[in-house]
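Long-time lurker, first post. I've been practising inverse folding by hand and with some scripts of my own, and I keep getting stuck on stretches where the structure tokens seem ambiguous. Below is the full token string for one chain I'm working on. Before anyone asks, I'm not after the true native sequence, just a reasonable design that respects the backbone. If someone could post their per-position residues I'd love to compare against what I wrote down in my notebook.
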């Protein structure tokens, strides 16, 4: 909740009082020096112990309250979280949950800056910062689906190339990855009709017969059962990717955030 200048002045004052440089300024970034890292590690352990002690003072049975900030990559399907969050909020009326949908690179920045408590991503954010710990939550099959109009039971590569396709991002590789996985070749020129960004929007366009697209199998199954969607198969195993849970390494969360974190690990990992 502070301005950048206030933070800068506080850091400069701390360095003067300790007579030690805690950060190296590299462009607009601050990088910890060796003394800065030692101080951080010491206070991190102290903070964890202090929070544990404070938690023991909480009266037995006292409801947990607070705000939890969960970052999600753009396109994350609401179907996977809705039941979990609705049950969690009913059981914990004093807790507020804020969902923030942003791009993958933004998720790692928000985590490091302390603007979100944890994040769900399609690749481990620890690749972008050593401060982040990433845990694989679950694997999901990605299936190519269509309405009745565009359904082809066992397509050849040229059949897929000719289909109208609903993709996610202009610079994305999902459809091309699906084609390489199933046909072992580059996709070449594709007939992309729209870029939908979010799973729910891509799904709606497929249901309205605009084209075919790739969605997680658990999202498609209810519509496949009702024959509103049809899975286009090639005979190979389906492409799969992973969803990752990311948080700042060794960070001691507030009780509300810890409770939701435990719930996410238990239910989504299952």
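-- Answer (accepted) --
I ran through it position by position. Result:
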């Amino acid at each position: 909740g502070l301005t950048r200048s206030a933070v800068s002045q506080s850091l400069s004052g701390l360095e003067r009082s300790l007579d030690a440089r805690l950060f190296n300024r590299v462009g607009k970034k601050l990088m910890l020096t060796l003394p800065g890292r030692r101080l951080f590690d010491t206070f991190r352990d102290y903070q964890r112990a202090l929070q544990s002690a404070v938690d023991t003072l909480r009266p037995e049975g006292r409801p947990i309250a607070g705000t939890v900030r969960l970052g999600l990559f753009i396109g994350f399907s609401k179907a996977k979280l809705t039941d979990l969050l609705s049950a969690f909020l009913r059981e914990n009326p004093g807790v507020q949950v804020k969902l923030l949908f942003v791009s993958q690179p933004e998720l790692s920045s928000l985590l490091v800056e302390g603007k979100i408590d944890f994040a769900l991503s399609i690749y481990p954010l620890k690749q972008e910062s050593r401060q982040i710990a990433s845990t694989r939550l679950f694997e999901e099959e990605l299936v190519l689906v269509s309405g009745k109009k565009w359904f082809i039971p066992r397509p050849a590569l040229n059949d897929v190339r000719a289909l109208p396709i609903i993709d996610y991002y202009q610079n994305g590789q999902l459809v091309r990855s699906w084609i390489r996985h199933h046909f072992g070749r580059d996709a070449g020129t594709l007939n992309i009709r729209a870029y939908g960004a979010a799973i729910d929007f891509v799904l709606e366009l497929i249901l309205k017969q605009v084209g075919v697209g790739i969605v997680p199998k658990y999202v498609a199954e209810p519509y496949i059962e009702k024959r509103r969607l049809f899975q286009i198969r090639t005979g190979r195993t389906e492409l799969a990717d992973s969803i990752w849970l990311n948080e700042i390494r060794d960070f001691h969360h507030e009780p509300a955030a810890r409770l939701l974190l435990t719930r996410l690990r238990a239910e989504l990992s299952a």
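A couple of notes from the structure itself: The mean pLDDT is 88. The radius of gyration is 23 Å. Happy to go over any region you disagree with.
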